[in-house]
Amino acid sequence: MLKIKIINKSHHELPSYGTxxxxxxxxxxxxxxGAVVMKPGQRALIPTGxxxxxxxxxxxxxxxxxxLALNYGITVLNSPGTVDADYRGxxxxxxxxxxxxxxxxNDGDRIAQMVIKTYTRVEWEPVKELDRTEREDGGFxxxxxx
Length: 146
What we know:
mainly beta; 1 helix; 146 residues; 5% helix; three-stranded antiparallel beta sheet; five-stranded antiparallel beta sheet
């Protein structure tokens, strides 16, 4: 199990897994000055009160919660958001209301999921051409709908 240093300036529990095999941890809004009402089409940066120190080679991905997306049209705008290993500021969640009604974010609401992942750094190898494949440059639905 990976141990990650975290500072919690909120009065909420740390991000936690809903079930034993869940990949994402629920993360909560920290709104000590009151709720945030989001109108349809509006976006907001929601603070969490959390600060962490990820090990080198890891990132934290911030993803939408499926229930908020399906039931209210609330999603993470830059999904997935990335928290880099060298970032030490407060984790903020950029939410957008794609629904038809106002949506209220209250202090302590579970607003997103957090997934800790490894990543690979790359070194570019400039070439004149790429290896051939059956697909070649077909993209954007070129295989049709099934």
